[in-house]
Design brief:
Elements lengths: L6 E4 L15 H14 L3 E5 L5 H8 L8 E7 L11 H7 L5 E7 L2 H8 L3 H18 L2 E7 L1 H7 L1 H13 L4 E6 L6 H11 L8 E5 L6 H10 L4 E4 L13 H11 L7 H19 L16 E2 L2 H9 L17 E2 L7 H11 L8 H16 L7 H12 L7 E13 L5 E13 L2 E9 L2 H13 L10 E9 L10 E8 L5 E8 L2 H19 L7
Bound molecules: acetyl coenzyme *A (ACO) and pyruvic acid.
Length: about 525
């Protein structure tokens, strides 16, 4: 039996562009639209023609899409003028987009307060605008703004707006929880009522996430009969965001048995598409993002790992590979032998499970975590620790000594200047290198001096970049004597990333340990031979 279809409407480029801190360029929009098209999304809302030069440029030369339909967003005509004489509406209709989505008021309070017109005129604005849009575009839809608040306040008027849109030719009547305050049981009940007046296969849902329920509300609407879902990649959107399509898609397909048109290949692409958006926005991916996050199938508790070793279904709600993700075992003070052994397999370290060194490594990890190390976030440092205890890590260099001078002064123009100078003495094979370097702070100066000392023997260190540097005070009651933990994330020229950790009452010393681990890890992974 064929599966029932739910249509996906992506609003990343429109509502997602209303996210604070997000400012798409035209190339961003084009790249995201192409990725959504490859994923198999039915509709891509490109923006609002006439609202800003970026959206005009995008619609002026839209990307060629092979599967998705490009939609132009806009609003109904303003009160007191005809649709054909409304420049805002005409800019949307002149965009030549084949699909047009118009938003209109459906909450009586908004009509009288924001539009300052009568309820009847609002119904005429909806009818006139949609009819004109129907003459210009192949497909027209209507976003019922504030539908759920409107329905609670005046169900007759909210329904009249939805019916007017339906009778004026809208293919989809999309019920919007614009303020995001409606809960799933309310959405399900209200959509079921609306489906008595507008057929369910003409109803869509557009939810905001102000109570963290946008995904649940969208699923509730589908349960009540709606067959189009509007959402965004990674839940971007105004205020707290929109329904996250990256979470909705697997739930609709894997758990509710719907066909959303993207097939198994699309589903396996989901994680990559989610990452692509983070890359474009220069954002760290959310580790805990449902289905696609790095931690979504990461197992930390010893009991969990012991059971997933026997059967992954014991602690996984779906097979991670279905959405392009992977199982991952982390090591920490919550770990038992199973975590350590599973991690060894992941990093390709062979060891007899009965080897007493396994137990001593578990103990060492627990002791070091008690001192402040955090190996669940610093897997490169864990690998070095494990290999040092069980196997072998080449001694690429030995940091014999370093000194850092940190200066803060006012220059001749009276401007505040901070500068640091580091000297390092490093043994490499039989040679000792002594280098001096400047930096804008002590860690930067040390990093520059160490790399200067190493680069002759190990040219690869030049391409190593620090992409994140986090300091955490572990004993805050000790004031400036507190123990600090430094976590450093590094990246090489191929884009591979790894994290290392250092702990010390001296913040510079903690940074030096994390940095040294980072360089050693990179050289070891690259199979570099230690200089003689
Ligand atoms: C629920 C949503 O998220 S809808 C999408 C919201 N997105 C955006 O607003 C982003 C793009 N918007 C814009 O660039 C601008 O707001 C524009 C170009 C659309 C309009 O700009 P301006 O003409 O300067 O108007 P401004 O934004 O100040 O106010 C909106 C006007 O539209 C009216 N309006 C609001 N909704 C509707 C509607 N559905 N139909 C007709 N008029 C409407 C408001 O009453 C207000 O009219 P007023 O100026 O007479 O008070
Ligand atoms: C249309 C829209 O973005 C909303 O009502 O939330």
């Amino acid at each position: 039996m064929s599966k029932e279809r739910v249509y996906l409407y992506d609003s990343t480029l429109r509502d997602g562009g209303q996210t604070q801190g997000v400012d798409f360029s035209v190339p961003d929009k084009i790249a995201i639209a192409r990725a959504l098209d490859r994923l198999g999304i039915d509709y891509i809302e490109g923006g609002w023609p006439g609202a800003n030069p970026t959206d005009d440029a995008f619609f002026g030369a839209p990307p060629k899409l092979s599967r998705a339909r490009l939609s132009a967003f806009g609003m109904t005509r303003r009160p007191g003028r005809s649709a054909a004489n409304d420049p805002g509406l005409m800019a949307v209709l002149n965009s030549k987009a084949k699909v047009v989505c118009l938003v209109g008021k459906t909450w009586d309070f908004h009509v009288t307060t924001a539009l300052n017109c009568t309820l009847d005129e609002n119904l005429e604005m909806i009818a006139d605008s949609l009819k004109l849009a129907g003459e210009r575009a192949e497909e027209v839809m209507f976003d019922c703004e504030h539908f759920f608040d409107g329905y609670k306040a005046n169900p007759g008027f909210a329904l009249a707006c939805a019916r007017t849109a339906y009778e004026s030719g809208a293919r989809w009547i999309v019920l919007c929880d614009t303020n995001g305050g409606t809960l799933p049981h309310e959405v399900e009940a209200i959509v079921a009522e609306v489906a008595k007046h507008v057929p369910g296969d003409r109803l869509g849902i557009h939810c905001h996430n102000d109570t963290e329920n946008a995904v649940a509300n969208s699923l509730a609407a589908v349960r009540a009969g709606a067959r189009q879902i509007q959402g965004t990649l990674n839940g971007l959107g105004e205020r707290c965001g929109n329904a996250n399509l990256v979470s909705l898609i697997p739930s609709l397909t894997l758990k509710m048995g719907f066909d959303v048109g993207i097939g198994e290949d699309g589903l396996r692409n989901l994680r990559d598409v989610s990452r692509m958006l983070d890359e474009r926005l220069n954002r760290q991916p959310n580790r805990q993002q449902a289905y696609v996050g790095e931690s979504a199938f990461a197992h930390k508790g010893g009991l969990h790992v012991s059971a997933i070793e026997k059967d992954p279904r014991s602690y996984e709600h779906v097979d991670p590979s279905l959405i392009g993700n992977a199982r991952h075992v982390v090591v920490s003070d919550q770990a038992g032998r199973s975590n350590i052994l599973a991690r060894f397999r992941e990093i390709g370290l062979e060891i007899d499970p009965k080897d007493p060194k396994v137990n001593s490594l578990v103990e060492t990890v627990k002791e070091r975590e008690f001192e402040g190390y955090a190996y669940d976030g610093a897997e490169a440092s864990f690998e070095l620790l494990a290999r040092r205890m069980l196997d072998h890590v080449p001694q690429f260099f030995t940091l014999q000594r370093f000194r850092v001078m940190d200066e803060r002064r006012f220059n001749a123009r009276g401007q505040l200047v901070t500068e640091a100078e580091a000297t390092v003495s490093v043994a490499i094979g039989n040679a000792v290198r002594y280098e001096v370097a400047l930096g804008n702070g002590p860690v930067n100066a040390f990093d520059n001096a160490l790399r200067k000392a190493l680069v002759g023997d190990y040219p690869g260190v030049e391409h190593l970049q620090l992409v994140d540097y986090k300091v955490r005070i572990l004993t805050p009651n000790d004031g400036t004597r507190a123990i600090t933990r430094v976590m450093i994330e590094s990246e090489d020229a191929d884009g591979e990333r790894w994290t290392t950790v250092g702990v010390s009452p001296n913040i510079l010393n903690a940074s030096v340990d994390a940095l040294s681990d980072s360089i050693t890890y990179k050289l070891m992974r690259a199979g570099v031979r230690p200089a003689a």
